[in-house]
Specification:
Elements lengths: L17 H11 L10 H5 L13 E2 L2 H6 L6 H9 L8 E3 L4 H14 L2 E5 L18 E5 L6 E5 L4 E5 L4 H9 L3 E2 L12 H6 L7 H4 L2 H4 E8 L2 E5 L12 H4 L8 E8 L1 E2 L3 E9 L2 H13 L6 E5 L1 H9 L4 H12 L7 E9 L1 H17 L3 E4 L1 H9 L6 H8 L1 E11 L3 H14 L9 E6 L2 E2 L2 E11 L4 H21 L18 H20 L13
Helix pairs in contact: 4-18, 17-18
Keywords: FAD, Flavoprotein, Oxidoreductase
GO biological process, one term: lipid biosynthetic process
Protein name: FAD/FMN-dependent dehydrogenase
Length: about 525
């Protein structure tokens, strides 16, 4: 069963090794386990629903609790620390487009607000319930999860938008296909959620980000149904797909998605290499991105993240690795490159040979496939460490951006320094580390993780996080980077969106929202206020 107050399945844990606990205590100080409120205590905070009865609505207090949060840091502080949140008044579980239309019509009739809910994995405040006099309905799409059509000739699949990652892939693999879209939240998130947040998956370098995969669909809005045919190409004016992608539930509820699918690869291999320092490894990553090699992924952990990642492991194998790398001149400033290729065996072997040539040219050392295999098997388990670190007294949060290659050093440095210095005023240290999660010929994403100690009270922890988020976001805007590469805008990034879109761009978005949602009932506060 899903945790009500944390990440993922409540039967899965990511125990923090003792070596890692010591590592954190040395870097930012020892921490104390916080007080975590129980589900029963949270249920006592739930007020009576303001909604009239409706057959599609569930007003059970526990159901409302489980739908008032995503996975942003502010959400965590609310549901773990006991800061009283705002709850939806009811939760709907539609099973058809007709049900969705009925819910929107009912909400319009009673002047309620509506929050679409996919997998509940948003880390930037997409699911935050707005304060106000109006009642709020959360629409959980989990029952709209069917494969509706598979066009094997055209390699297109149409799903209901509430299908979750594992179910989507299982349906496709049974027919010999894959979507190949694997965000970190894959096990929990939905196809519709990927589309409306412009998601990027681990293997986007090969299969494409969701905007390359999404070719058509339907969205129910307060004023009608938007239908987008799945043409192979069209010059008929602006592409309406772009209005749906990144809309974050602000325009309506996506009910159907047609996506490009690919035949299952004959071979799929993940390998690793290490470099002696930051500059050599970033240069190598750029060379790989620009070489036209058919890779499915490149992920480069910079020195601080490499050290942190390796601190989660211990044993004689790690000692052997450190000695072997040192013998090759790769010591304290080591960086770790993970990369993969998928396709025919011949294509994969050729791609991996070319990668080795570039690695060697930039003073890197190939270390085989064991590290890559371990990452592949455990890649969806890593977010669970948030639960266990919180229990020890540490908060973990992430943010990301994307920049042209020539802006990588200055942007990375500005964000990292902003985070490291943000809590000096309260005499707290922050551990910050970065990896390049996706690379492109003209630039790369920067994915930053930061860890800080929980305060004695939830309200003080909230102030610490708000200070950190503000410092990082201002650094991103100041250096001209995008406020988000893959997480979307939500509430957390909304104040910084105008810096990227400009006044006229924000007016265009507002006009579109008003056209499809004139009463402002859909997920208010997201994208535009």
């Amino acid at each position: 069963m899903r945790r009500w107050n944390g990440w993922g399945d409540d039967t899965v844990d990511f125990e923090v090794p003792q070596a890692a606990s010591k590592y954190l205590a040395k870097l930012i100080g020892p921490a104390a386990p916080p007080n975590i409120i129980s589900l029963e205590e949270m249920m006592a905070m739930v007020p009576a629903s303001r909604l009239p009865m409706h057959p599609l609505l569930n007003t059970d207090p526990e159901e409302r609790i489980r739908h008032c949060f995503g996975q942003s840091m502010s959400d965590w502080i609310y549901f773990r620390g006991g800061l009283v949140p705002i709850f939806p008044d009811g939760v709907a579980f539609p099973e058809s487009d007709k049900d969705v239309r009925e819910i929107l019509g009912f909400a319009k009739e009673i002047a309620a607000r509506v929050i679409p809910y996919g997998g509940g994995t948003s880390v930037v405040g997409h699911l935050t319930v707005p304060k106000g006099e109006q009642s709020v309905i959360t629409v959980d799409m989990r029952r709209m999860n069917k494969l509706l059509e598979l066009d094997k000739q055209g390699c297109l699949a149409t799903f209901q938008a509430g299908v979750r990652g594992p179910d989507l892939e299982a349906a496709l693999r049974a027919e010999g296909f894959t979507l190949g879209h694997y965000p970190q939240s894959f096990e929990l998130s939905t196809l519709g959620g990927w589309v409306v947040t412009r998601s990027a998956g681990h293997f986007s370098m090969g299969y494409g980000r969701i905007e390359r995969l999404f070719v058509g669909g339907e969205m129910e809005t307060p004023v009608g149904t938007v239908k987008i045919p799945a043409f192979p190409a069209s010059a008929a004016g602006p592409d309406l797909r772009e209005l749906i992608m990144g809309s974050e539930g602000r325009l309506g509820i996506v009910t159907k998605c047609t996506v490009k699918v690919t035949a299952l690869p004959e071979a799929e291999i993940f390998s690793a290499a290490f470099f002696p320092g930051r500059e050599e490894s970033v240069t190598a990553a750029r060379a790989l991105a620009q070489a036209g090699i058919p890779l499915s992924m490149i992920r480069l952990s910079l020195p601080e993240e490499t050290s942190t990642t390796l601190s989660l492991k211990d044993g004689w194998q790690m000692d052997l690795l450190y000695r072997w790398l040192a013998w090759h001149g790769i010591k304290e400033q080591r960086t770790m490159l993970l990369y993969g290729a998928a396709g025919t065996r011949k294509k994969v072997n050729w791609a991996l040979r070319r990668v080795k040539e570039i690695i060697k040219k930039h003073h890197g050392v190939y270390v085989g496939t064991s590290v890559g295999k371990h990452w592949y098997k455990s890649r969806f388990k890593l977010p669970y460490i948030r639960n266990n670190l919180w229990d020890l007294g540490y908060a973990v949060d992430t943010l990301e951006t994307a920049v042209p290659w020539n802006q990588v050093p200055v942007t990375r440095k500005a964000i990292e320094e902003g985070l490291r210095n943000a809590l000096i005023g309260v005499n707290e240290k922050v551990h910050v580390f970065t990896h390049l999660s996706h690379v492109y010929p003209h630039g790369t994403s920067l994915y930053i993780t930061y860890i800080f100690r929980l305060a004695d009270s939830p309200s003080e922890t909230m102030l610490r996080w708000q200070t950190l988020k503000k410092a990082a976001s201002e650094a991103i805007v100041r250096t001209g980077a995008t406020i988000t590469h893959q997480h979307g805008v939500g509430i957390d990034h909304q104040p910084y969106l105008a810096a990227e879109k400009g006044a006229l761009g924000m007016e265009m978005i507002s006009s579109l929202c008003h056209t499809l949602d004139p009463e402002g009932m859909m997920n208010p506060g997201k994208l535009v206020k």
